[in-house]
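Figure-free illustration: sequence to structure, shown twice.
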Amino acid sequence: MDILVGIHQYSSTTYANDLMHEDIPDNAKTKKISDFKTLLMYTKEKVYDLIVILTKQASLPCNWNLEKIHPESPPSIMIITNFNCNSSILIESFLQSIFGFGFIEEKNSIVKDSLKYISENLCESELSLEKVASKFYLNKSHYSRVFKEKVGVGFKTYVIQKRIEKAKILLQHNYSVTDVCFTIGYNDLTHFSRTFKKIVGISPSEYRRRAR
């Protein structure tokens, strides 16, 4: 698992310098981030599984649109606000807790591999629990239980959520509702529209109009 620790609102005399010089694993990088443009630059250089943002502020600036970070396969993002550790010992302890974090993809190799497969085939209309379970030579019921235990939601709910996230991005780029429907794996425009409205709160056509 590749990790990016971004330090926002730092100064040369605060915890940032200590954090930048900690002995951290090879799969993790610490970067000073002054604005969202800088964060995007780092995430374009490398795809990260987990992004941890530390800020001394009560919240991140309102213009930080985290959905723009790898929208095709969004990473998990952890935001730590009001973070102001001047003690290198506390910083080291914090880092150890992050790098030892029980991340769902790491807990179970089956779920990790299947999540990757789902991401790569998300827009296939034939994507199903049965197909993924068969792909990894698993009993459908067993895989369903393991998936929900590790991911926190059922397979069907997970796929729907990811598809709707993808649909929102395409609608923001002015794709037609019909094109979006079939692009993300739906074969029925009415079903897609109902599902979208149930999750987002408005119809896809209304979402597209507001996004312009």
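We now fold a second protein in the same way, so the two outputs can be compared directly.
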Amino acid sequence: MEELEKLLAQCREQHIVDLLKLEELTDFVENASIPLHWVNAEGIITWANQAELDALGYRKEDYIGKPIANFHADQEVITDILTRLTNNDTLKNYPARLLASDGSIRHVLISSNVLQKNGKFIHTRCFTKDVTTIVLKEQAQAMLAAIIQSTDDAIISKTLEGTITSWNPSAQRIFGYSETEMLGRPITTLFPADRQDEELDILAKLRKGERVEHFETKRMRKDGSLVDVSLTISPIRDHGGNIIGLSKIARDITLKKQEEQRKNDFVAMVSHELKTPLTSISAYVQILLAKAKQQDNAFNINALTKTNSQTQKMISIIRDFLTLARMEEGRVVNPKDGIPASPADRGSDRGCPVPDQDPPDKDIQLRAGHHRGRP
């Protein structure tokens, strides 16, 4: 009898221990940091822990007891998952997209198998890993890579020492070098002999964390020809904010420069073919007007006064046009010294004539006075 009581006491103690273990295990599962849920053979959610509810933002009554398909963004995916589990397959890191309560999409990896008893489907044992941050980052990187590969601009990355580390297709199109040829080579390979010092100035600014934007200069192609480019250069930083490299965007501005050349040619034509003859005409009209006044010829005075007025209007229009052209030229920065280039500098640089400054009106009056009284 005593032995029986001892045995019963041991059983009660063991039962208490088992209950405590079961309580601890239940707490562990219910409050685990990994989302867990069960789904029965009909695809209904029969249980979910708090981590699962928190991950998707649902209350128990809005989640448990509902079809698992209601929470999948892609119906063909959940159909495939349930089919595989019904066939007693084990899933490991199966990618899926779940619908959160706020309407957002959560990218997850599902690992699951089925609890079966006597060949009967009881419920799944699903572990859900949220990988939304990783997936969105990968998508952003893929999109950025696609942009770099398809853009018309050359995009080049390099080390702080100027060694090229990436080279996109447009860089090959603009400069003629393939990616294989340029990786590991110094960026100064593209610099003409008279612009090698530019790299030192650029690196000095970038090491300070500054950007270089819309820097117009010339670079050299593989065949030795020069190409006009506009550069935007930025520092590349690591997670700690340290500068670990440089990115360069080079835009071919050949067409822009050709357009500027055509504009300069037109300005030169206006100056020499229109303004200069009109200045001479104005001077002679004023001489004739002075003579008409001496002769007191009313008709000639009236006619020449109107002619002079119209001539001055034409000169004023041309002067305004040339002034505007010079103002536009003044916005161009000389890449060699970083100061605005004068019209004369830019004209001589392109080999095109530069419009002369407008002669003061008083010169015209003086010339008219010089001829006053002559027959």
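Summary for the second example: Strands lie at 36-39, 45-48, 91-99, 105-117, 120-130, 154-158, 164-167, 212-220, 226-237, 243-252.
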